[in-house]
From TrEMBL:
Belongs to the phage portal family. PBSX subfamily. It holds the Pfam family Phage_portal. This is Phage portal protein. It comes from Glaciimonas soli. Transmembrane segments: none annotated. Residues 1-26 are annotated as: Disordered.
Length: 358
């Protein structure tokens, strides 16, 4: 007979062998823990990278590139009604006091003033005869003008490999001085561009809000046990169909035996948030008018308070003295460059305007 061999089994191994598989062992569920999050760190206004970008204008070998995007300023021109209207207002006042002549026409001066108020730069090209006499001053778009390496030559660059070099000394450059560089001028309203963009964003958001009709600014909370799933599906379908064109429909819900608080509407945001649009429009408007230094009563803005903005005539006189006269003095520098009086302004008075209209 064969002897049966006994195997010595370790008690610990016996325990592992009799243990159930790991997949069948129920895992211990951890209790939900509190989660904390933040919206990011504050962003400094004066970042070192932004300061380095404005230290100088980049020289590409032939001309200097502008310190900021002229195309961006052109697009921002119509970002806010108060921004473009204030610029047009100043241009119209300047044009109304300008005295045209055969060298510089009224249309040319108006385009020159519009460029200067928008970009802080304005350019005039001198067209001379063979004898050197000035025949006419022509306006060149400031958006496409570039200043050469020697600062006396100017280029008209409208696109890739589309450039025109003006004769040296044939272009007059009127610029609003900048504190970081002396190659190009910058407009004085740059600090209010954020307000102009915020005004545009608020208007676009409000427009999309009404156009789409997606007024899902609440949570429909149902706790009534008397409701069945079919009623819930019907209510969900009715709310979905209320979006888009033909919205603002009435939704009827019949809940027999339901409680008073069985169906609740919980706003996602506060009810006062609906007035933020008007607050943003008002604050950004004040910022833009302060940057352009134009009184609101001269812009045709309706006051929101009972006292109003005050009389129009005193505001017009103060604006003419503090804003119009300095602007006129800047355009008079054209006379020093050309050597003759081609820019001349009449005195801006309300009595003179009334008499001229009569």
């Amino acid at each position: 007979m064969k002897k049966q061999r006994r195997h010595n089994i370790n008690p610990q191994a016996r325990q592992y062998a009799t243990a159930p598989p790991a997949s069948n062992v129920p895992a211990t569920q951890a209790a939900p823990a509190m989660e904390a999050f933040s919206f990011g760190d504050p962003t400094p206004v004066l970042d070192h990278a932004d300061i380095m970008e404005n230290l100088e204008c980049w020289l590409n070998g032939r001309w200097y590139e502008p310190p900021i995007s002229w195309q961006g300023l052109a697009k921002s021109f119509n970002a806010s009604v108060h921004h473009s209207s204030a610029i047009h207002f100043k241009v119209n006042i300047l044009s109304s006091t300008f005295v045209p002549n055969k060298v510089l026409s009224l249309a040319t001066f108006k385009r020159l003033a519009l460029d200067f108020m928008t970009f802080g730069n304005a350019y005039l090209e001198k067209r001379a005869s063979r004898t050197g006499q000035t025949l006419q001053l022509k306006h060149s778009l400031a958006k496409y003008m570039r200043r050469g390496k020697d600062l006396d030559t100017y280029y008209f660059v409208s696109g890739w490999q589309q450039e025109h070099a003006f004769a040296k000394g044939a272009v007059f450059h009127l610029m609003d001085p900048d504190v970081n560089q002396e190659v190009y001028g910058l407009p004085q309203y740059l600090s209010a561009l954020q307000s102009a963009w915020l005004n545009e964003s608020a208007t676009l958001f409000r427009r999309k809000y009404y156009k789409n009709g997606s007024h899902a600014g609440f949570i429909l909370y149902m706790t009534d046990a008397a409701q069945n799933i079919k009623d819930v599906d019907n209510l969900r379908t009715a709310l979905k169909d209320s979006k888009g064109p033909g919205n603002f429909r009435n939704v009827f819900m019949y809940a027999p035996g339901g409680k008073k608080d069985g169906i609740q509407i919980l706003p996602v945001s506060e009810v006062a948030a609906k007035d933020e649009f008007f607050n943003i429009k008002g604050v950004t408007r004040d910022d833009l008018l302060a940057a352009h230094r134009v009184p609101p009563q001269l812009m045709g803005i309706m006051p929101s308070n009972a006292g109003g903005f005050g009389a129009v005539e005193p505001a017009a006189r103060v604006f003419a003295r503090n804003e119009l006269v300095p602007l006129q003095s800047q355009f008079l520098m054209i006379n020093e460059w050309i050597g003759e009086e081609v820019v001349k302004f009449e005195q801006y008075t309300l009595e003179h305007v009334e008499g001229k209209a009569a």
